[in-house]
Amino acid sequence: MILTVTPNPSLDRTYEIPRLERGAVLRAATDRVDPGGKGVNVSRAVAAAGHRTVAVLPVGGPEGELLLRLLTDHGIESAGLPVRSGSTRVNISVAEPDGTLTKVNAPGPELTPDEAESLLATVETRSAGADWTACCGSLPRGLAPEWYGELVSRAHTAGARIALDTSGPALTAALRMRPDVVKPNAEELAQATGRPLTTVGDVVEAARELRAAGARAVLASLGADGQLLVDDSGTYFGTARVAAVRSNVGAGDASLAGFLTAGGFGPAALASALAHGAAAVQLPGSAMPAPSDLDPTAVTVTSEIPLSRPLTEPTT
After folding, report:
1. Residue 200 and residue 172: Cα distance in Å, rounded?
2. Sign of CA dihedral 106, 88, 140, 203
3. Residues β-bridged to residue 248
């Protein structure tokens, strides 16, 4: 069972349009609403793969009620904690046929100290029955960067392995609590190490720095360039063939789900992560892939790291 924690969940509404024109009245070809937030997306991908998952999240207002109903529709158990002020946020994505995505993320409600503690207590209790606890996404207003570190500590005390997918001060503050795997992208790695990354070799060195700071393993997403895994079994680099990108919303979350459901360790888990991420970008909106969407033959994983290969989008 995989427990997910989403401190700032959302409803994700996606419109597919022929072309984005500023100031114009646009007609959408399709319109869909998905339960959202990074941890929620992980739960959706885990459930689609046929595994049990429980989503822990704060919810508020009618938007929060709809989010819980949608989770049930996806076969996901939820532990929703009501918030007293504000409603669950609604994020808007506008997708164009060439894969260009314009997204507007709302801030979400502010959590009180009591609500923050209740969320931690729920995670600690629920983690006792989990193989993995995946803590994902940005922190809402009211939660200090150290909150994720406390969450990692409590989940470890309950006996669960921790996957952490966040960035900035929340990531660096949690490293000393020894999360079992962290999942930054290249930009987040650059921010955590304080220097630009221009090659795959730069990413390897940055990942090793995060391990030295406390992370037991690093699963780094490099977008179209692939993914890198550095853990106790070695260092591995992988790519996945994609026919056409339809939407990249939630692709990293699908990738983390694939990694965890394949054991969360070693090259086989990296291959599963790549297959799930590649499948997700070929689906509409923030749809999560089912097993029938995966193409393992499109994935290549190697321990021979192309250190000098430049990144398609180098960080600054």
Report:
1. 22
2. negative
3. none
Q: Cα 242 from chain centroid?
A: 20
DSSP character for 194? Answer: T
The rounded distance, in Å, linking the Cα atoms of 145 and 131 is 25
pLDDT tens-digit map of 78-96: 999 999 988 999 999 998 9
The encoded tokens of residue 129 equal 């029955």
At 98-143, the pLDDT tens digits run 878 899 999 999 999 999 999 999 999 999 989 999 999 999 999 9
Q: Which two tokens stand for residue 281?
A: 């970008």
CA distance 16 to 249: 13
> What amino acid positions are annotated as catalytic residues?
253
Assigned token pair, 107 = 């801030």
Strands 132-136 and 2-5, by their bridges, are: parallel
In whole angstroms, give the CA distance from residue 199 to residue 213.
Answer: 22
> Taking the model in full, what pTM does it have?
0.93
User: How many other C-beta atoms lie within 10 A of the C-beta of residue 30?
Assistant: 11
Q: Strand pairing of 53-59 and 77-82?
A: parallel
